[in-house]
């Protein structure tokens, strides 16, 4: 996903500037994991990153600006999709990737903090939406390929299938408190694949195929 032109902290040249950005985003992620959004202080981020406080304030301005850039970087750095040659296999790989992220000792708390912040801050919410739009667009071609192979009906909405894989895992993390384990990931993938094959996500007009 391309960075917004002129947005704080989004210029990505090489050398010292890139190193500073990487250090600041790493420190921000650590603080979010440890203390949540409420504990994200730009001065603390600068200290942890060993970067001048003025640099952090000038480039990112506010904690929400920093979180927006962190989400942008996370989307760019996320692993590419895995193509196994079958819808069931591809969705399973997607589910296991989500599961590993949400159950990771650092990434799990980081995502919870960002989601909590997005619930009450529009800028963070917009950044989170962009993050997930990027990830859905990355995996949607797996569903498009499955339709072409005849594994799912014409008009199947790729984005809806991908959302159906991860939704149960986020529910476990944020609402029910049930384990986000591999078994849950496999069940989510199997359910989404079965529903897709049965036409649950098919749009009879065929328009869903073109949505990211």
For this entry, give a set of tags:
disordered N terminus; mainly alpha; Arc Repressor Mutant, subunit A; transcription; Tetracycline Repressor, domain 2; 2 domains; TetR/AcrR family transcriptional regulator; 9 helices; Homeodomain-like_sf; DNA-binding
Helix content: 55-70%
Taken from the alpha-carbon principal axes, the silhouette is: elongated
**CA distance, first residue to last residue:** 13 Å
Structural class: mainly alpha
Order of helices and strands: HHHHHHHHH
**The CATH topology of the largest domain, please?**
Tetracycline Repressor, domain 2
CATH top level assignment of the largest domain: Mainly Alpha
Report on the biggest sheet: none
Number of domains: 2
Number of strands: 0
* The CATH fourth-level homologous superfamily of the largest domain: Tetracycline Repressor, domain 2
Keywords: DNA-binding, Transcription, Transcription regulation
Protein name: TetR/AcrR family transcriptional regulator
Pfam families: TetR_C_11, TetR_N
DNA-binding region: 41-60
In short:
Residues 18-78 form the HTH tetR-type domain. InterPro entries: Homeodomain-like_sf, HTH-type_TetR-like_transc_reg, HTH_TetR, Tet_transcr_reg_TetR-rel_C_sf, TetR_C. This protein has helices spanning 16-35, 42-49, 53-60, 63-77, 87-103, 107-118, 122-149, 158-176, 182-197.
């Amino acid at each position: 996903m391309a960075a917004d032109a002129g947005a704080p902290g989004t210029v990505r040249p090489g050398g010292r500037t890139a190193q500073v950005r990487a250090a600041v985003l790493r420190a921000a992620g650590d603080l979010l994991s440890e203390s949540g959004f409420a504990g994200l202080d730009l001065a603390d981020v600068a200290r942890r990153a060993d970067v001048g406080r003025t640099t952090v304030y000038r480039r990112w301005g506010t904690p929400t600006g920093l979180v927006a850039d962190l989400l942008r970087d996370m989307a760019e750095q996320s692993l590419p999709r895995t193509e196994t040659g079958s819808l069931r296999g591809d969705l399973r790989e997607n589910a296991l990737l989500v599961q590993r992220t949400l159950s990771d000792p650092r990434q799990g708390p980081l995502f919870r903090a960002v989601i909590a912040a997005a619930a009450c801050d529009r800028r963070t919410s917009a950044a989170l939406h962009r993050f997930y739009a990027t990830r859905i667009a990355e995996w949607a071609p797996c569903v498009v390929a499955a339709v072409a192979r005849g594994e799912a009906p014409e008009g199947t909405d790729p984005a809806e299938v991908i959302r159906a894989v991860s939704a149960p895992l986020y529910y476990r993390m944020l609402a029910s408190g049930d384990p986000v384990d591999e078994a849950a990931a496999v069940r989510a993938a199997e359910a989404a694949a079965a529903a897709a094959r049965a036409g649950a996500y098919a749009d009879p007009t065929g328009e869903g195929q073109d949505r990211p």
